[in-house]
Design brief:
about 140 residues; alpha+beta; eight-stranded mixed β-sheet; 4 helices; about 25% helix
């Protein structure tokens, strides 16, 4: 059973935030200072963002390869949520300085990081400050 929510509402329901830095993962649980800092930075960055149809489709094996380099953040919900008709248990984002938008890669326990993505247009904002928050954890 899926919990149906607007995409922007789902992030407040994350149980953990996983941060990958060149393949090394750190997990920050809800209620920790790091979790709160990441979530606050996320909300500032996505304020006014537009949820748009994505052209991106994730292939699990390819996503696992690219996850080994760069900065990534993953919101882990611990339950199955559904937004815009697409279910997910986690949402993974590649965080790159100077980006004005990004794919949100859906994870489901049955297929991993496989299937259609969501896309956020940051409406003129960039990922710069959010990148710095993740880099400095």
């Amino acid at each position: 059973m899926c919990i149906n929510v607007e995409l922007y509402e789902s992030f407040d329901n994350a149980e953990n935030i996983n941060v990958y830095n060149n393949g090394e993962m750190n997990v920050y649980g809800a209620g920790t200072e790091e979790f709160d800092n990441v979530l606050t930075g996320w909300k500032i960055m996505t304020d006014g963002a537009r949820d748009m149809p994505a052209f991106g489709v994730s292939l699990n094996s390819e996503t696992l390869k690219v996850l080994k380099s760069g900065i990534w953040v993953e919101f882990d919900f611990g339950k199955v949520y559904e937004s815009n008709g697409m279910p997910y248990e986690k949402l993974l984002i590649n965080v790159q300085k100077s980006s004005y938008g990004f794919n949100l890669i859906r994870y489901n326990s049955q297929g991993g990081y496989y299937g259609r993505c969501f896309y956020y247009d940051l409406a003129g904002n960039t990922m710069d400050d959010f990148y710095d928050i993740l880099q400095n954890l």
